Amino acid sequence: MKRVLFIVIVLFLLAGSGWAQGKIGYVDSQRIFSELPEFKEAEAKFNKEVEDWEEQAADMKAEIDSLIVEKDKNSLVWSATKKTEVENRLTAKQDTLQQFLDITFGPGGKAERRMNELSQPLKERVIAIIRRIAIENDYDMVLDAALVSIAFAKESLDLTDDVISEVSKEN
Question: Which of 2, 120, 131, 163 is the most buried (most CB within 10 A)?
Fold first, then answer.
């Protein structure tokens, strides 16, 4: 809702400043990225790494589950010292798993950093191409339909195919 309001305000300001004749285009960045082989490769690489991290977490969880079963099965025959020792090991393993999950999948974690690392060069290339197309075709503004809600726009204002074509030419 804030994005739509922002666009309406920008358009209102542009119209009020005599810039109403300005040329505005748009792209669909989701479609651009979904159609680019390089992005698909980066996404596949990222998904494989995430799968490996999830496997590590599952192994840690299996160790915890095994220790819980062992504790439940033997708690009646163990001494208080042994129970405390196992509970401490269990708590340590649970803490280690939680730390691993936070460091790997939490905000700013390995997964987020890795996705940015893999996608940032492609994003920068696409933005540079959008900028070049906008300048060459005298667009004053290019919106991203994936980030803002566009209720209506003429198809002639959609630069998505042009961007995909230019990115493909660079390969």
Answer: 163
Do residues 4 and 148 touch, judged by C-beta distance below 8 A?
Answer: yes
Of residues 170 and 65, more confidence is placed in: 65
Of 163, 145, 116, 122, nearest in space to 40 by CA: 122
Q: Are the beta carbons of 97 and 60 closer than 8 angstroms?
A: yes
pTM for the model stands at 0.72
Superfamily of domain 23-170: Skp domain (3.30.910.20)
Place of tokens 């209102």: 12
8 Å CB contact between 66 and 74: no
Q: What are the domain boundaries of the chain?
A: 23-170
Question: With left for phi above 0 and alpha for psi between -120 and 50, is residue 139 left, alpha or beta?
Answer: beta
